[in-house]
TrEMBL record:
The keyword Metal-binding does not apply. Residues 1-56 form the CSD domain. Keywords: Cytoplasm. This is Cold-shock protein. It comes from the Bacteria. Its main location: cytoplasm. InterPro entries: Cold_shock_CspA, Cold_shock_domain, CSD, CSP_DNA-bd, NA-bd_OB-fold. It is found in: Cytoplasm. Pfam families: CSD. SMART domains: CSP. Gene3D superfamilies: Nucleic acid-binding proteins. The keyword Aminoacyl-tRNA synthetase does not apply. The lineage of its organism: Bacteria, Pseudomonadati, Pseudomonadota, Alphaproteobacteria, Sphingomonadales.
Length: 58
């Protein structure tokens, strides 16, 4: 609903920011808690990690 959120990473590192545009580029309309995804991390100019190239797992 907000147009952004966070993805919990399996490697124990801080959550990755995800924007609705990355979700839509993956062909998804929404993400729900518990959805499993593979993704790449992109570091923005502030040093924050954003999830890109999302793909559903399973």
């Amino acid at each position: 609903m907000k147009g952004f959120g966070f993805i919990q990473r399996d490697d124990g590192q801080p959550d990755a920011f995800v924007h609705i545009s990355a979700v839509e580029r993956a062909g998804l309309s929404t993400l729900n808690e518990g959805d499993r995804l593979s993704f790449e991390l992109e570091v923005d100019r502030r040093g924050k990690h954003a999830a890109v190239n999302l793909q559903p797992i399973g």
